[in-house]
Amino acid sequence: MQEDYAIGPTPDRIKQLLQEAILRDYPNPERKGCFDSAILTTIAQQRLPYEDPHWAHVSHCSPCYAEFLGLRKRFREKRSAVRRFQFLLWTAVVIMVVFLLGLSAITFLRAH
Ligand SMILES: [Zn+2]
To answer: Ligand 1 centroid vs 50 CA: distance in angstroms?
Structure first.
């Protein structure tokens, strides 16, 4: 991707550079102070406020950050699938209601 340096990097590009730096610059091969997957899952599901001290470790530990990114991606994909299903369900309900109202109107008009 070529960047226009007169305009500057986009927010997405800054985010990507920060993520790459965290993944590269905090190797922690001995996994000192690392959390188990349950805590990382809680963080990935955005159930902890940004002031929570767990964030300080995740943003300064490449292995935890890599796991966090994977968990967050899966969480967002699942949430997106649930929202698509809910949209389709509500669309079906609206279509059924409109159909039933139309059918009732036709039945009423034929009776009178
Ligand atoms: Zn860690």
So the answer is: 17
